[in-house]
Design brief:
Strand content: 15-25%
Distance between the termini: 20 Å
CATH topology of the largest domain: FAD/NAD(P)-binding domain
Helix content: 25-40%
CATH superfamily of the largest domain: FAD/NAD(P)-binding domain
Bound molecules: flavin-adenine dinucleotide
Number of strands: 18
Number of domains: 2
Shape: globular
Number of helices: 10
Radius of gyration: 21 Å
């Protein structure tokens, strides 16, 4: 049976609670942050820990956006391999971001530990699995780059990949020991809780409608109230819900959906990912799989579980699960949910300088747990200290991208056609 599509597992299993009210008064602050995902919450945590008066406004609830819906793979680096990053950003910026993002999973795990965030954190690494011979060639070349850039990544052959995944579907894999998995919604709510405990004022159900700069002060307006502050951070990414064209950013959207089983028996679990790595594959229409703390197997893929390809993505997920693990017969999904990924044309996240004393970041292109935490932390620090050399990437004055609607539609159509064809073959 096709389960309710907006049934997010992370909401069911979240041990970190958020219980904030809506903004009901006008306030002043040093820094106003708009958006309560990894970026906004980690910026709030950093800025309050530096002694600043911080207000965070979230339109829905903490973690409502990509941060509460993702796979939970805490990966090092960006989607792009290091060589490509250097080609796009040049040597100075490229080397800096490769190095910073290489350490970013450690930043995430250290914040979790320091603030006792109850988010199923597992530092067991990730496996990037070759879905084909071509995929294995790509991983071998990626491993060569890892050696050049001192990334501690190892290439596993088919035999070892079979044992590590519990599936015979792959040709090999890259293992990255820096990475791991988390319960992403709980991590996000834990960041907010830690920031609030240091004095950050957090308001949920407080959608920002308008932002103006008057005599050097930002006026951030909800339907009913205004926050005035010297500094502003917009952390809206794919979930930006702002009418003001001067402030909204341009990118295309990729939908990604996840399907989780009920907790599996210990017998079945003993052979699936016995070392608990998180996995994704080399296919163009990528898929992922991992186990959560209660022993659910979660399979994810590009495509909207609630869109026009709903039935096709669902049918693909069932068949894919059985092709990966043929001993899982007649497994039903008890949670199905989707999220939006903000994809920039070069797959590099952006920081836009909103005139003086304001920043906006977006475009993590599907890799935002460690990058969002790094960007949020660095932007919080840069705004409070006034020292923009803390930013992991140079801010740009504005970012323009064309045909984003068409690209969004093409991504979804491509995923649907691919899953329809694969469903026949699997
Ligand atoms: C399904 C899926 C799977 C993914 N898997 C992974 C993964 O395994 N590993 C990984 O590293 N990354 C992954 N990502 C990417 C990662 O989740 C995102 O890059 C990250 O969550 C972005 O965080 P953020 O804080 O910038 O934005 P978000 O978490 O999207 O937060 C933005 C917030 O802004 C709020 N907002 C919008 N407009 C307004 C307004 N007007 N006023 C007030 N608030 C507003 C929204 O409600 C939202 O809560 C995945 C993404 C998706 C969708």
């Amino acid at each position: 049976m096709l389960a309710n599509s907006e049934n997010n597992l992370w909401e069911t299993t979240c041990n970190e609670k958020s219980n904030y009210g809506a903004l009901k008064n006008n306030e002043t602050s040093d820094l106003t942050i708009v958006g309560g995902g990894f970026t906004g919450c980690s910026a709030a945590l950093e800025a309050t820990s530096l002694g600043a008066k911080v207000t965070l406004l979230e339109a829905n609830d903490i973690g409502f956006g990509g941060s509460g819906r993702n796979v939970g793979l805490v990966n090092a680096g960006l989607w792009l391999p290091p060589k490509k990053i250097l080609e796009i950003l040049g040597k100075r910026q490229g080397q800096s971001i490769i190095s910073e993002l290489g350490k970013a999973p450690e930043l995430v795990f250290s914040i979790i530990e320091k603030n006792n965030i109850d988010c199923e954190a597992q530092k067991h690494g990730t496996l990037h699995c070759a879905h084909s011979g071509k995929g294995m060639d790509y991983l071998a070349k990626r491993k060569d780059q890892a050696d050049i850039y001192n990334e501690p990544i190892s290439l596993l052959d088919k035999n070892e990949t079979d044992q590590r995944t519990g599936s015979t579907s792959f040709y090999g894999a890259l293992f990255d020991p820096r990475a791991g998995t988390i319960q992403p919604l709980a991590y996000c709510k834990g960041l907010a809780r830690a920031a609030a405990s240091l004095g950050a004022r957090i308001y949920t159900n407080s959608k920002v409608k308008k932002i103006e700069k008057i005599n050097g002060t930002w006026h951030v307006r909800t339907e009913t109230n205004t926050i005035k502050s010297k500094l502003l951070l917009l952390a809206l990414n794919a979930y930006q819900d702002i009418e003001d064209k001067k402030i909204s950013q341009q990118f295309s959207t990729v939908y990604y959906s996840q399907f989780s089983t009920k907790p599996l028996s210990s017998n079945k679990l003993s052979s699936i990912l016995p070392q608990k790595e998180g996995c994704w594959d080399t296919a163009t229409i990528m898929s992922s799989f991992r186990i959560d703390k209660s022993g659910r197997l979660i399979i994810g893929t590009m495509g909207a579980a609630q869109g026009f390809g709903k039935k096709i993505h669902y049918s693909w997920a069932k068949k894919k699960l059985q092709s990966l693990f043929p001993f899982l017969l007649d497994v039903e999904f008890d949670h199905i949910w989707q999220g939006k990924i903000a994809m920039t044309k070069d797959h590099i996240p952006k920081i836009v300088n909103l005139r003086e004393n304001g920043l906006s970041s977006f475009g993590y292109s599907g890799r935002g747990i460690a990058p969002g935490t790094l960007f949020g932390t660095s932007m919080g620090k840069a705004l409070i200290t006034g020292n923009y050399s803390f930013l992991p990437i140079d801010p740009i004055q504005n970012y323009r991208e064309s045909l984003t609607r068409e690209k969004t539609f093409a991504f979804e159509l491509g995923a649907t056609i691919n899953h329809a064809i694969q469903s026949i073959r699997l």
